[in-house]
Automatic annotation (TrEMBL):
Membrane-spanning segments: none
Protein name per its UniProtKB record: Unannotated protein
Database matches in InterPro entries: AB_hydrolase_fold (IPR029058), HAT_MetX-like (IPR008220)
GO molecular function, one term: homoserine O-acetyltransferase activity
Organism: freshwater metagenome
Signal peptide span: none
Amino acid sequence: MNSHDVGRDRGGVAAALATIEVPVVVVSIDTDRLFPARLQAEIVELTPTAKPVKTINSPFGHDGFLIEVESVGEIIRETIELGLKLDLVGR
């Protein structure tokens, strides 16, 4: 997982993220040390279609995205509803 680089062969991370044309929702776990909040903020800053970072408060660090099912589920529901409003779901 740590070897994934969205910018590889795309001119770098900023160039790759700048090409995204669909709405992007970025989620951060406040105690995640593997993918800290500052990196999520950078994704939002570099992605023209990104919504503000959604932060989940969790004592479980990186595993919070697996454990905080209600919080993650709510964000997924909101994102699907946004996609439906923009007619992006099911294409």
